[in-house]
Amino acid sequence: MALTVVCFRLLTATVNVNYNFVVFVSLKIADYHFMNRYKLRAFGITRELLGGKEPFIEIQGQTVGDLRMELARRYPELLGLKSLYIAVNGDYASEDQVLTSQDEIALIPPVSGG
Question: Domain limits at 51?
């Protein structure tokens, strides 16, 4: 006989009982995706497209590439920009750069001028 108990919605314990004694106990952490929250600084047209100067965004990923994909999904108008650079803590970021909640993330649209 197997008995499954769910604890705190994240941990599942399965206890297999053979007559009067426990054969084994196995624990499994549920597939649960934690959301990461980032504060964005939007400049130029990106500020207008996102609806505010410093919006927050919550995503499941942790990289600049994950952030870019989620921004494109939520704000498809961004795909119409000629370019969109993402800077982290004052430096242009690569797509595989890992983000933290303390990072300053800036969205830099194309600029014109002479």
Answer: 36-108
